[in-house]
## 1
Amino acid sequence: VQLVESGGALVQPGGSLRLSCVASGRTLEDYAIIWFRQAPGKEREGVSCISRSLSIPFYVDSVKGRFTISRDNAKTTVYLQMNSLKPEDTAVYYCAPRRSCTQYSDTRESDSWGQGTQVTVSS
């Protein structure tokens, strides 16, 4: 399934953004959804995942307490609410579907990628 990310922007440190991840013409209820990010010169890393059936959220330590992942009731969109943004959050953000959140912080060859959405945190 191909996903489309949106919502990225230039924001000042301490600001907030909400990213959206949608699939064209279908719902996402059959998938765990992972938000990844890739900063310049760094590897792509998973930062948050929402599980398939119970929508249980998972976060890496660097975003815990600041980011919130959620699904809408219609199961068509997965959001990443990002608060208290820091310059080190600057990256291109991608979402990807999987069967589970196992080892979500790592990329896999089987992951499918959209175009991503740029988040820049700078004063």
Note: The chain is about 0% helix and 45% strand.
## 2
Amino acid sequence: EVQLLESGGGLVQAGGSLKLSCETSGFFFDEYTIGWFRQAPGKGLEWVSAINTDDGSTYYADSVKGRFTISRDNAKKTLYLQMNSLKPEDTALYYCARYLGYYSGYDYWGQGTQVTVSS
């Protein structure tokens, strides 16, 4: 059974940092691109970042570029998101998801971890 489990969320003041983790099981982690998404209260789902499996290329939404860093530990089957210089507008439920491909998109999702940034 494919599972993704996020952790590391919490309450932090603006300018602070948090590191999210996404522990996975049930599939060959090192064969898949994995991404982070977020959903703020009353807003739609926003893609945040992704990391390839083959060359480790990373991709970021403009809203987080330069502040967030995505990484992966294939041995631990875990994805990370280091978030620095947090802003109140970063407040959201953060999800990790497995990317299946161009036509299928992201197929498995975690349950999310809440990040709240106070001003």
Note: The chain is about 0% helix and 55% strand.
## 3
Amino acid sequence: VQLVESGGGLVQPGGSLRLSCAASGFTFSSSAITWARQAAGKGLEWVSGIYSDGSTDYADSMKGRFTISRDNAKNMVYLQMNSLNPEDTAVYYCAIPKYDGLRPPYDYWGQGTQVTVSS
């Protein structure tokens, strides 16, 4: 199983980024995929997730700003992040939930991609 995140970077407050997660080594179309993040000195925070049927869920602070999507033909999951603020600064990971649902614990996760929101 391999998950590879990309798309992070430095963005100004109010800006946007689109994160990508390339998946391989498992039956992607049957798997829920989730995004989580970890800010420096803080614990892992669940961000969003998408089920195999395309239904989605978001943490309250991300609703209306973030959009998760998937492309089963490409084994890709995306996280479109808009209206970013400095509190969104973190390393973002895509992960496969261990159990039914979208929340931790996770079976697998990638190396992460850094998102920094700063002027």
Note: The longest strand covers residues 17-24.
